[in-house]
């Protein structure tokens, strides 16, 4: 009886929420997809780096937004959690299906303008808020800041935004430096990989030196796997670097 009451309460809590319609879906691997959602009947406002709360059947989860505020749809990078409550349902969605959406974005994982150098560490879906921040900064024509984005994944097909970010870095070298890294370079799935290797927490100290960052004017951001965040934070804060983080938890 308890589980039935809980499920009913969840459905009731979201029944009157606004809806967002699925307008685009791209599956990159069996467990990674990027979706675009269109809020129905209202304008969803957010700041780059914030997250939205989506739901199905009364079950809700928070997702960082990869799109920038000027873009027409909410772009979300989603990882399937096979034994989770929400993402298996999301994997069954077709174009035109809708999800509940909380009408206000939340989160304080934003660009901090007290720094002009921004070292960003993101693992797989953890890159999403950084994509939003970089897209918005360039769209607005801002200058005077530089983003150093390290994106980590086990396999090269999990990087997903690497083509976009590499192109942006080439076109706006004064604004973005992008380094994708693979942690399992010897596996067959990564046979074509020729870039950086290693887990982000194992290479972050090297790249702090390589980028010749100024400790007084640099903020280090981390988003993604809690293990990467914890280890990286211990390494960089021990030597006095400023730090902010956003964690993703499995369902």
Description:
This protein is an alpha/beta fold and 251 residues long. It folds into two domains: 2-101, Translation factors (Elongation Factor Tu (Ef-tu), domain 3, Beta Barrel); 117-247, Rossmann fold. Helices cover 25% and strands 31% of the residues. The protein has six helices and twelve strands. The chain has helices spanning 2-14, 87-90, 128-139, 162-171, 200-210, 226-237; strands at 19-29, 32-39, 51-56, 59-64, 74-79, 98-101, 117-123, 146-153, 176-182, 196-197, 218-224, 242-247. It has a six-stranded antiparallel β-sheet. Strands 10-9-8-7-11-12 form a six-stranded parallel β-sheet, sandwiched between helices. Helix 5 packs parallel to helix 6. It is globular, with a radius of gyration of 19 Å.
Itemize the secondary structure elements and their pairings.
Blueprint: H1 2-14, E1 19-29, E2 32-39, E3 51-56, E4 59-64, E5 74-79, H2 87-90, E6 98-101, E7 117-123, H3 128-139, E8 146-153, H4 162-171, E9 176-182, E10 196-197, H5 200-210, E11 218-224, H6 226-237, E12 242-247
Helix pairs in contact: 5-6
Give a concise summary:
It contains six helices and twelve strands.
Which key phrases capture this entry?
single chain, 251 residues, alpha/beta, Elongation Factor Tu (Ef-tu), domain 3, Rossmann fold, 2 domains, 6-stranded antiparallel β-sheet, 6-stranded parallel β-sheet, 6 helices, 25% helix
Strand content: 25-35%
- Helix and strand composition category: alpha/beta
Instruction: Please tell me the overall pLDDT.
Output: 94
User: What does the main sheet amount to?
Assistant: 6 strands, antiparallel
Query: What number of structural domains do the residues give?
Result: 2
As a whole number of angstroms, the C-alpha radius of gyration is: 19 Å
Q: Give the ordered list of helices and strands.
A: HEEEEEHEEHEHEEHEHE
CATH architecture of the largest domain: 3-Layer(aba) Sandwich
CATH superfamily of the largest domain: Nucleotide-binding domain of ferredoxin-NADP reductase (FNR) module
Name the shape in a single word: globular
Q: What name is given to the CATH topology of the largest domain?
A: Rossmann fold
Provide the helix percentage: 10-25%
Report low-confidence residues grouped into runs of 5 or more: 1-10
Strand order of the largest sheet: 4-3-6-1-2-5
